[in-house]
Amino acid sequence: FYFLFYFFVKKKGELFPSQQEQTEDEEKEEKSDNNSIPITQTIKTFTFWLLFLSATLIAGCGLVVINNITQITQSLSGPNTSYLSKKTVMVSLIGVFNFVGRVLCGMLSDVLSPYFSRPCFIIFWGIVMCITHIVLYFGYNINTLYFCVSLIGLSTGGLFATNPALVADLFGRKYFSSNFGAVDFGGAIGSIGLATLVTGSIYDSQISNNNSDGSDRNVCYGLNCFSETFGICSICSGIAIFLSIILWLRTRHIY
Fold it and tell me: Of 51, 135, 155, 159, which one has the fewest beta carbons inside 10 Å?
């Protein structure tokens, strides 16, 4: 009864706004709707494709490690070493830091918005992703992999937390669902293109080269199994950074 009394009596003014407050809210929504762009026009803008390609490349590079963490850990452990406990730690690190990235980036993008526009956060996560893949390309051990996996989980979570607010800023709120769905579709393309097709084809080609003794024809062991993939992801992340910088320059007037 106390909660009912609190919300419906003490907080009545907040639950049921006055006519003046309703009018002000309607004016704000109408102003926001006038600046909104439907999906049919959004996909024709250069700004959309800058954001879409940046998100696709950064998300795809992150999903290369996230989707293939079992194979990466197994290739590093070797044929005669158990990797299950290490894989469990890797998955836990990805989940924890992905959550931290989503929460932290969402808060920071709001707090620091007067000083840094939201495209700056896309640039930052692209830089983190690029540096991480460069480190993995030049060689890594299990401790280095723990650290890199944490950064990839953090940057992937930060990217997916930044995109919704960025879509609302650039294309308005009225058609937010369809516009964000189009941008978010880039993650699926990156997953299929980089994390599945590119990574899988390189992994299969390395099996015959690294396991010439016939120890296991279905599993690749050694750093070379994914080094070429990490190199490709480094280049893709660099391209995403370049596109994000252009996006930042084009949208500075909004912020």
Answer: 135
Angle between helices 176-190 and 46-67 (to 10 degrees): 40
**Cα angle for residues 78, 228, 71 (degrees, 5° grid):** 35
Cα distance between residue 236 and residue 126, in whole Å: 9
Q: Find how far residue 136's CA is from the centre of its chain.
A: 19
Measured from the Cβ of residue 67, the count of other Cβ atoms closer than 10 Å reads 17
Cβ atoms of 225 and 70 within 8 Å: the answer is no
Token digits of residue 248:
């930042």
User: pLDDT tens, 194-233?
Assistant: 999 999 999 888 887 765 555 566 788 888 889 999 999 9
Quick one: tokens of 138?
A: 């030049």
C-alpha 185: how far from chain center: 12
Q: What is the DSSP string of 131-168?
A: HHHHHHHT---HHHHHHHHHHHHHHHHHHHHHHHHHHH
pLDDT of residue 234 exceeding 90: yes
The CA distance from 108 to 71, in Å, is 34
**pTM given for the model:** 0.82
Q: Which residues contact 197 (CB under 8 A, 6 or more apart)?
A: none
Asked whether the beta carbons of 202 and 222 are under 8 A apart, the reply is: no
* Whole-angstrom distance, CA of residue 231 vs CA of residue 222: 16
pLDDT at 70 over 50: yes
